Amino acid sequence: MATAIDAAHVTYEAPDLEVMEKFLTAFGMVKAEGSDDRTLYMRGTGTQHHIHVTRKADKQRFVGASIEVAGYDDLVELAAKPG
Description:
Elements lengths: L5 E9 L2 H9 L4 E2 L7 E5 L8 E5 L4 E8 L3 H9 L3
Parallel strand pairs: 1-4
Antiparallel strand pairs: 1-5, 2-3, 3-4
């Protein structure tokens, strides 16, 4: 049975990336290289490049979460499950 190994990152949309950066910095995250005026990448204390992505948009909303799996077959199996 395929299972997710780890959460990779979450993605949100928001109208003000500076406000999101200040908010996430209060939780210990830091701005990652590769951020620009349309997309903000924030990293934690681990080795991942980023754990939080915010894309500039008119309204704030949760877009989704990315997960890590062991291999392609596990990804296909998980994708086939409802919900």
